[in-house]
Amino acid sequence: MSKEIERKFLVYKEKLPPLPAPKVIKQGYISGGETTVRVRISNEKAFLTLKGKTKGLTRSEFEYAIPLSDAEAMLQELCIKPFIEKKRYLIEHAGHTWELDIFEGENEGLIVAEIELECEDEPFEKPEWVAEEVSDDPRYRNANLIKHPYGHL
């Protein structure tokens, strides 16, 4: 079992550096509640992910590669609509990799940066383009953005 320790921030769009090539992500959610079940297609790879209840900044995470055709079928047949559509950019800064997500579709206009840590109190340096922390704000969780898209926040 793996543990995910993640902090999430809004972004100053005007301060972003030139961005590398993105991963194109389309993902959907099968269930709500305390366990989150996510189906994700990232470029030409597909994954099924189960995430447990968040305790502080930490939660259990199980992720498995699945056939692309299975993921496409799950998205169409099992997942709640609309999907989360975004472009993800990986940006290195001060020894950490930041995941910058620029949302499209129902959540167009939302830009979020995430950093995964080894422990909840691990120190890190924020890039100048990182703004307000929203780690504890459930409105910015992908599973919630399906039910309440960014334009409706």
From TrEMBL:
InterPro entries: CYTH-like_dom_sf, CYTH_domain, NeuTTM/CthTTM-like. It comes from the Bacteria. Transmembrane segments: none annotated. Residues 2-153 form the CYTH domain. The active site is at residue 29. SUPFAM superfamilies: CYTH-like phosphatases. This is CYTH domain-containing protein. It comes from Sulfurovum indicum. The lineage of its organism: Bacteria, Pseudomonadati, Campylobacterota, Epsilonproteobacteria, Campylobacterales.
